[in-house]
Amino acid sequence: MDSLLISDAERFFIIQGTELGCRLDGRSEKDYRPVEVMTGILNHSAGSARVKLGGTSVVSCVTIEIGSPSFDQPHQGRLIIDVECSPTATPKFSGKSGSEIADSLKATLSSAFTPGCLPLELLCIQPGKQCWVLYVDLLLLESDGNLLDAASLAIVAAVRTLKSPSFVYF
Predict the structure, then answer these.
(1) In sequence order, which residues have a C-beta less than 8 Å from that of residue 7 and are 6 or more positions away?
(2) Backbone angles phi, psi at 130, to 5 degrees
(3) Which residues are in the Exoribonuclease phosphorolytic domain (predicted)?
(4) Which helix (H) or strand (E) holds 53?
(5) Residues 59, 154 contacting (CB under 8 angstroms)
(6) Distance between CA atoms of 81 and 45, rounded to whole angstroms?
(7) Can you tell me the distance from the alpha carbon of 40 to that of 60, in angstroms, rounded to the nearest whole number?
(8) Which residues of 136-161 are buried (b: 16+ CB within 10 A; e: fewer)?
(9) How does 100-116 read in b/e, with b if 16+ C-beta sit within 10 Å?
């Protein structure tokens, strides 16, 4: 986690830039990074999306299966998030630090996407017995800041385009 901390020089640079209203990439303090969201990019998944936020790029893929609800939320489905960092996304992702960043991001996203954030009660099949479990896999392809924003947007975009599996009853 220490690799995510910034040096005194970086802190000074950020403070000065904020006070002067300028950024390294030329945007003003009120300008957003360009956002691009593409959904349905993976044909063999229940939902998928690619988000580009400035120079950051994240792909999300949702798979769905029937499972058991958690004991503390028997009337809701479950959302399980996994994060992988491409070692080519940035030098910070190579080696052990990439897995540390992925673990940190996974923990943050898992705590952010609580039952109040998504309507997980819609995923309940039989209270206390069966529910839909959504597995969201994120791949960080490029990193140029705003990783948490891009990852969150990729999750929401993929879940919103979710296709439920079709069933054949005998």
Answers:
(1) none
(2) -140, 145
(3) 32-164
(4) strand 47-53
(5) yes
(6) 15
(7) 10
(8) bbbbbbbbbebbebbbbbbbbbbbeb
(9) bbbebbbebbeeebebe
pLDDT > 70: percent of the chain: 90
In the chain, the amino acid numbered 83 is V
The domain covering 33-160 belongs, at the CATH homologous superfamily level, to GHMP Kinase, N-terminal domain (3.30.230.70)
Shortest CA distance to 120 belongs to which of 128, 130, 111, 131? 131
Tally of residues, the chain = 170
For residue range 56-79, what is the model confidence (pLDDT) as tens digits? Answer: 999 999 999 999 999 999 999 999
- Its pTM stands at 0.80
Start and end residues for every CATH 3.30.230.70 domain found in the chain: 33-160
Tokens of 163: 């296709």
